Structures are given as structure tokens and as C-alpha cells.
Amino acid sequence: MNRGPIVPALDPPASGEQAPALFAGGEPLSRSGLVARVETCRRAHGADDPARPIPIVAEATSDTVVEILAALEDGPPRLLLHPRWSEAERAAVTRRATAAPVPPDEAIALLVPTSGSSGRPRAAKLSRAALRAAIAASAAHLGTMPDDVWLCPLPLAHLGGLMIPLRAVAAGRPVAFLERRGGEAFAPAFIDAVGRHRVTLTSLVPALLHRLLDEAPRWRPPGHLRAVLVGGAAATPERLRAAWARGLPVLATYGLTETCGQVVTETPGTPPAKDGSVGRALPGVEVRVGSGGRIEVRSPTIFSGYHPPPGDGGGCRRLPDGFLRTTDLGRVGPDGRLVVLGRADGVIVTGGEKVHPEAVEAALLTHPAVRDAGVVGLSDTTFGQVVAAGVVLERGATTLAAIEAHARRRLGQAARPRVLRALPALPRTPTHKLDRRALAALLRGARGEDEGV
Hints:
With 453 residues, the chain is an alpha/beta fold. It folds into two domains: 8-341, Rossmann fold (3-Layer(aba) Sandwich); 347-447, ANL, C-terminal domain (GMP Synthetase, Chain A, domain 3). Helix content is 28%, strand content 26%. The chain has helices at 31-44, 62-71, 87-97, 128-142, 159-171, 186-196, 206-215, 237-245, 357-365, 400-410, 436-447; strands spanning 20-23, 28-30, 54-57, 78-81, 108-115, 121-127, 150-152, 175-177, 201-204, 227-230, 250-256, 261-265, 280-281, 286-289, 294-298, 306-307, 317-318, 324-332, 338-343, 348-350, 353-355, 370-380, 384-393, 419-422. The strands form five sheets. A nine-stranded mixed β-sheet has the order 2-1-8-7-9-10-11-12-13, sandwiched between helices. The longest helix has 15 residues, at 128-142. Mean pLDDT is 89; it is low at 10-15 and 449-453.
């Protein structure tokens, strides 16, 4: 039996057995209650085939956390399915992930679907040892305070959300799940949870950070909130600095599913960097930039491969020296700080020039009337591809002509959008990342094209 340190870390002295561990769906779950439920779950799966993954819909509930904690000790791996997927999507991912056995000697705890450049989800195998190492690296960087309370506003089906309750449980600290009633906006629910639970630590993706700033322009966070991790997608330096100026202790972070989440994070208490760098590698992690400008990572948090292995050979790849070659582009400065430039498979090649869509988005977002921006490449018979952008504008604030003039001042000729459209909102995935395929379809239709991207 491969018992890990996650649940034993919950075992409290008698005086602390009823201390809350989880706030989800009404009544809090005590630490002793969580230990008991995890043990019950382990026993229930004791006779299951350890090579056959168990699919679970990763709702933000105590049931999901219990299943994940049980898998971190022993038994079959859990396949995490996003609650916003359709039944057909869940069935397709489940069929693919359960078509072949997962070798029990790999000690895999979780299979977490992640989309490659093809858009077809592949399941990353995360071992118990890798997840424990990721929890330890984060704790070493952020530290643990006696009054710490984590808030989880992100989906548990993805690493940004999944790691929040695991960090909290391993540290013996409570975690609250964000609860939004009916059509409640994000900001009021977030602000209420931060105050009600006296939250000290949380994570956001840039889209939710933007919503918080836009929906609650007068809110100033309480002093007990000591760190807000911001990752999962690129956040512009301007937005991070705007959040910092409002008193939000934002920490840019970089990680991916294949590394069990964050591997680079800004130092707590440090203002966002003007150059867009996200910080230095966490303890026990090495980061370098390899051939083609790809970010490469060596760490005990690295995944055990995809299940089943992708037929297209895509995704991240382990190199002979133990580094993981990612699909992201970046650079590391002399001071060891990482700048993430974007995805290697998202680079636009227009007239022979390479353009990073994230750089164009960042330039567009410096205009005060641009609330959101997304950039893709559209096929073009003359240039191969052209840069196309969709922007969400503040109501009545400006015209597209003004945005085009702004782009001419901020961008070189190759990077200037040849297609620019105002949209009511940008299409996003269930994890709030920009859905570039859907955006390309919108911009292609606006351009009147019928050719591929």
C-alpha cells in the first residue's frame, strides 16, 4: 500500500479534530470528518482494478476532494472530467482514457485531460510522488502561516484549481470553495468569500482578475489576503500592476498540467515586473530555454507521460537529460527570471515574419478603451497568414479606427492586425482561457472567408 503524506497531515491533536478542513456547499467539513471520509472512500475502492481509471466529474464539492485524496494514497487513478463538458464530451474522453490499462507500478494518482494543439484532450498521468513534490515546492515558496485559509475559485478539473485544496489539506489549513448563487457576478461572490472566510491565499486566471478589477473598481482587499497567484494564461504587466496598485498581492506564476502546476512564481511581496517576467523557478525546479526557444523544465513534479500516448507525437516531451520540453516559448534572463512569450504552436507566420499573438494582445490592451483582446492567424493567399484581432471595448469609449492607430504606434508592420473586429465578448474555454479556434471562426466569418486557419 502506497500511503502518502497528504491525509496523514490532517491527523490533528484531539483539540483540533473539529477544526474545519473544507467549506463547500453549506456546512463545513471538519478535519476528522475529512479523514474518515477519505478512509471510507479508500475501502470502497479497495477491490477495484488498480489499472483501470475511475472517471469522476470534478465538481467543486467535498466528494471530489475526498476522491482525489483517496487516489493520492492508493487504489485506481481518478480521471477528472470537467463539469461543464457535455455528456458526449465526457464519454469520449472516458473511452479514450480507459481503453488501455494504467501500469500500477507507475503509482498514478490522477489522469488530467489537457488539450494539445489539435484541440483533442489527452490525459496527463500525474503520479503521487509528483503531486507531493508540487505541493512541497509551493509551500516552500509561499510559506505557511497559522491563520492561512485558501479560497478555490477555479475548476477542480484543471491544475490551477486542483492544487488549491491539496496545498491546504497538506498544510492542515482550511479551504473554501467559491459559491455563486444563481446569476451572481464573479466579483461580489469573490469579495464576500474573502471577507467571510478571512482568506489569505487564492489563485486566479487573468480573465477572472480582469473581471474582479472591472466589476469592483472601488474594492480594496483586506490585509489578511497575502497572495493571489495569477496563472493559467498570460496576464499583461499593465493589468498586474493595476491590480497591485489596488492592493491586490498578485504573484505571476507559470506552470502546466504536465508539471503538476506552478514551477515558476514571483517572490511574495514583490511588485509585478515591468518586463512581463513571472519570477524564478521554485525550490527543486530547474528552468532553461532550449532549441527553438522552447521552455524546458526539470523537476520531481514532472508528469509520467500521456495516457494513451498521443498518435500525433504532440504535447510535452521528456529529453534524455531529464528536462521536459514544453510547448511554450520563453527566455530566461541573467538573473534567472522567466519571460513567457507564448505557445510555440500559436506563432503566426505572416510574410515570413513570426508574430507572437500574446505580444499583440498585450499591445492592444495598453489602450484604455480595450477591455479584452484576442489574436489569431487567418489564412491568406498572399502572406500565408495575417494577424487578426478581436477586441472588447468599453461601451462608447472609442472607435476601431482609434484602436488601429494605437496598434500602428505600438507594433511593427508585421504584427499589426490586418483584421480587427469589435466583439461583445471573447470566446473562452471552461477554464477561462481564450478559445483561439472559436475566435478564429468568428473573425473568419467577419472577414467573409471560408478558408482554414
